Amino acid sequence: MTADQLAISLLELVRDQGVKQVYRALEEVDGLDAASSSAGFRTVQTGRGVIVRKEKRRPAATALERVKKMDLPTDTADAVVELARRFDNKTFMPTLGDITNFCEVYDIDQPASKSRAAAVPRVFSAIVAMDAEDIQILLDYGSFSGPSRPGPIADAIARSTART
Asked: Closest by alpha carbon to 87, among 109, 120, 57?
């Protein structure tokens, strides 16, 4: 952008927004460089000027990635990894309700954040501390896996409404 084009663009902005508003915005952009990382933005110097870009957030680590970084006992490692896979596929603890139930049953403090991802460290630390038999039971019986089939739920609802 040439100096003339910049001046024309600024003039249009001043007409639309007013001098004070444009000046405030310029001050924010000028100060953005120092506060860019905390605001989720970064500035990039190019041959044509400064470009402000939104930072790309790295996706949260999956349960499987986190479990693989843990020190797992050899006798339970495969089962814990499988539970992590199921957690990521939402076939193990698919809802926050399942996580809450798990935390209550195993007397674990529930995570403050209301997300499945936030529960991973606490839940899988508890699972790793379990006996191999208990972990295998979680796998074999699909405990804390939500309803596996909607048919039985529909039948139960039909029976309860038929009684009333």
From this structure: 120
Block residue for tokens 């972990």: 135
CA dihedral 91, 92, 94, 95 (to 10 degrees): 160
The percent of residues above 70 in pLDDT, for the chain, comes to 70
At 17 the three-state DSSP class reads helix
For residues 1 and 5, give the distance between their C-alpha atoms in angstroms, rounded to a whole number.
6
For residue 11, give every residue at least 6 positions away whose Cβ sits within 8 Å of its Cβ, in sequence order, or none.
none
Q: What is the DSSP string of 62-116?
A: PHHHHHHHS---TTTHHHHHHHHHHHHTTSSS-SHHHHHHHHHHTT-PPPSS-SH
Tens digits of per-residue pLDDT, 74-132? 999 999 999 999 999 999 999 888 898 888 888 888 777 778 888 899 999 999 999 99
Within the chain, how many helices (H) and strands (E) appear?
Answer: 8, 2
In this structure, are residues 80 and 127 in contact, taking their beta carbons and an 8 Å threshold?
Answer: yes
User: Is the pTM above the cut of 0.85?
Assistant: no
Give yes or no for a contact between 43 and 52, defined as CB atoms under 8 angstroms apart: yes
Confidence of residue 163 (pLDDT cuts 50, 70, 90): low
